[in-house]
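hiii, so i know i said id send this last week but things got crazy w the move. better late than never?? heres the sequnce for the chain we talked about at the cafe, plus the structure i predicted for it. fair warning i was half asleep when i ran it
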Amino acid sequence: IAIHLQWLTRVARGISVHPVERQRVSAAVDWLEDVMREHQRVVVVTHGVFRALLGAELATRGWTPDRRISGYRHWSVWPYRL
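okay and structure toks below
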């Protein structure tokens, strides 16, 4: 509940994503791109909010969904291809 209240407060202020979270997402994508240079396939397991932020950052860097994204269900899969 506290996490959702914090998020709603930020949205009300016009700050949907905290700068620290943006830095974490950017660092995660940097790391993922490094790993992808060595391995053909990589699996990343994360919670839904971070996954959505990760997907948005991947898209800005030229990654595209490999197939239709399966939503926010538990254990949903979001495959991307560079």
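btw The longest strand covers residues 64-65. thought thatd interest u
miss u guys!!
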